[in-house]
Design brief:
This protein folds into two domains: 127 residues, 3-Layer(aba) Sandwich (Rossmann fold); 72 residues, Helicase, Ruva Protein, domain 3 (Orthogonal Bundle). It is built from eleven helices and five strands, in the order H-E-H-E-H-H-E-H-H-E-H-E-H-H-H-H. Strands 2-3-4-1-5 form a five-stranded parallel sheet, with helices on both faces. The longest helix is centred in the C-terminal third of the chain and has 18 residues. It is elongated and about 60 Å long. One of its GO terms (molecular function) is DNA replication origin binding. It holds the Pfam family Hda_lid.
Length: 240
Amino acid sequence: MKASRQLTLDLGHRPALEREDFLVAPSNELAVAWIDRWPDWPAQALAIYGPAGSGKTHLCQVWRRSSGAVAVNATILRAEEPPAILGEQNVCVVEGVAGVLADEPEVTRRLLHLYNMVLERGGYLLFSDRTPPARWICPLADLHSRLAGMQAVALGEPDEALVQAVLVKLFADRQLTVSPEVIQFLTPRIERSLDAARQVVASIDGRALEARRDITIPLVREVLSQRPGGGNAMNGKEEV
């Protein structure tokens, strides 16, 4: 007889995005300090940048909650003019700026208008992307000069200690408790990035539910063997 499997439904989960949930490490401490420093910024605009999963979205969410900022993206800029987007607010956050700039020309024009409106009101803007502002391609010279002149702060690749701590947090976000041995086994076998940690935790959670099994090293080994590279990342090196 085949072992019974539990039907899994992708109902999602609520990640912890409060300031106290953000794990500070050498790779992100400067960006965290800038977010915590607001509104005592030397200028009205700040950009944070770093690889996928480095914590940009989390920091933007933290800042948005503390500042009451309006979240802006290309979809919103396509649909509305800046006065309607901002309302009475003078603080906004724009994530994935390079993608916004690559959208249709009207979106870029409205982003410039938005930028100017916020500054005229004495407000603040936070931008985020994977690349620094100097590498953003902007067709409008006025907007390009404003973005390129912003204070920019990098979030680096996480070290092993941070990856371990993030794995524990990601499992906890899903109401899952795993042993230190599982975390220690898993850490060197995935890419050293928070995005990779997020993906593998989701896969392990799904596999444990489907098979009705606890999260153990054998289960983790099975999940890793089914991923590209067979789980032999070893921080970018083949396992020997």
